[in-house]
Amino acid sequence: MLATPKFTGPVLELRDLLNTYLEPEKVAVILRAFEVGAVAHKDQKRKTGEPYILHPVAVARILANLRMDHLSVAAAILHDTLEDTPLTKPEIIEQFGDEIAELVDGVTKLDKMRFRTRHEADAESFRKLMLAMSRDLRVIFIKLSDRLHNMRTLGSMNPDSRRRIARETLDIYAPIADRLGMNSIKSELEDLGFENLFPWRHRTIAEHISTTTGNRREVIETIKKALKKKMNEAGVPCRIGGREKTPYSIYRKMLVKDLSFSEVNDVYAFRIITHSEPHCYMALGAVHALYQPRPGRFKDYIALPKANGYQSLHTVLNSPYGLPVEIQIRTEEMDVMAEKGAAAHWQYKIGEKYTGTAEVRARDWLMQLVDVQRHTGDSMEFLDGAKSDLFPNEIFVFTPKGKIIDLRANSTALDFAYAIHTDVGNHTQSVLVDKVEVPLSTRLENGQTVEVITDPAATPSPDWLSFVGTARARTAIRHYIRSLEQEDTVRFGMRMLEKALDARGTNMDEVPQDRLDAFLQDNQFNRLEDLLKSLALGSLLANMVASKLAPDARPDDQREEEALAIAGSEGNVVEFGACCFPVPGDSIMGYVSAGKGIVVHRINCRNAREFRKHPDRCINVVWAPIIKSLFQVSLRVLARNNPGVLANISASLSEAGSNIEKVEQTDTNPETATLMFTLTVRDRDHMARVMRRLRRNRNVIRVSRVSA
Ligand code: MN
After folding, report:
1. Which is deepest, 26, 185, 333, 556, by most CB within 10 Å?
2. In this predicted model, what pLDDT tens digit does every residue of 31-69 receive, in sequence order?
3. Domain 631-705 part of CATH 3.40.50.1370
4. Catalytic residue at 423?
């Protein structure tokens, strides 16, 4: 039995903080998480030499400062256990339940993702990937807090790692905090990133700041008093604070606006926090009456909030003390939103009913954004962006070289190949996902690494269309098939003409070239291929053409007319009648209809008598000896109207190896239901097997093939 870990200083401080806003039983869960975490990490030390568990405790404390719910704080304490200790997810579920385990698992998955490329555009994709992978925003809150504590203790790392981690923080984590409106975490991440990336620049600016604030303390107090007095006169209840600028925010302004340090820093900065929106505008009037405002410097972020929901009034005044005075005015509520952003919606208060699920709370946050942005023109656009971050319609996967590819949700391994390049897609031979070969139809998931193996001999297959998810892949495959069909059409037209000539006891080689040329010219065909296409599509009849090309040859009555073989893979020149759905094994006939080509019907189709009125358009067809296509067939099923009957019948169909293309219910009756299924089968035998399987289903009363 291991000794129970002791609650040392940092844990006691965390406990005291938790006790200020959580019920005792919730604090107890967190302390239990500490005990389990401390045992799991017991032999590990951080680079600083401290026991490892102090890191997760510090992360938990950052979240407790945001007043996060107890589940997030407990998950924060366990956040490194799955990756670095023998503790398993089932064990966490058993001891702490699903929700905490899911949060820990979510953070672990983010940790496994490495940002490998250095391109600007990829940083944006990577940020999206992180948001997409954590449907529950609390996972991001934990990850940001984890990064913040790692940044605070970065000093113990070697200079190379410090720079790499600092760059990553500025590229990835600070912008995520910014997008979520979590200003306090964002500015600390930025400043620590700056300090570790450019230590000398940071130190210079920080020293400048401390000298100037020291010199200015007296003036600041004087202005503050003047402001306070003016607010009292105007009847605006408020508290007034000074504002410290971080070295990074000054550095950024110098860089972006090309200003000197004193141009950026030489201001007195204050924040006025008041009760309501009208108070904000009253306060604005009051400060403008106190000192003269600088033209063009007033910004109303209350009426026109920033994209992440930030609201405030900003103005700059001339003061009698030589330097301008910058003022921000906002309500308490706006202040909380400005500092905590999305995290504000997870704030826990004793007695508050815990109702919202992760998605409901994320939606609350988004709805609030909509609300604050209703005056701004681009709010919907932003909302769309934010929505796809949180409820993603996109997935992000890696190439073997670490480049990020952005795909629609539901994309398959084959879509990835087409996303790389159409030629790669068209010659895809196989695909490896995380180094394992998978079927081309495999749906991809966020964060996977995908490698495409191509073969110059490989070509697209029509059934690829049945599973690809992106328009790009679909268009490319269709394009390829269409170009193939053009060739097929010509070849098919040639077969029809050869058959008609053969029936007259002659063949193409015996047709004199000048007669052929004359025929083409008379009928306005530029080339033989155009004539053959017209034949295949039924615009011209083969017998008529044959009689013109070989007028001397006589139909040979002794000769049995050779039937045209149908394999189902002829493309758009052969169709199958939707009236009778012929399948291989049925006796069939062909009817040439203008512009469509040959439509194949069953001999006993109800329309057959009508077709026979046009004998010149009827042709003999037979099934080809080898057929690889699937065919549609229509079955009428009378079933008992039990709950779940459709699912039950579908299961029987899929056991029999048949896919449902369409299903319709044609009647409504309390006891029975008539269902019309359109299914795919290989041939008559397969169809018979499907029907037998259906008849064995207890819910099925009667099955029949729809035959016109
Ligand atoms: Mn960590």
Report:
1. 185
2. 999 999 988 888 888 888 888 989 999 999 999 998 888
3. no
4. no
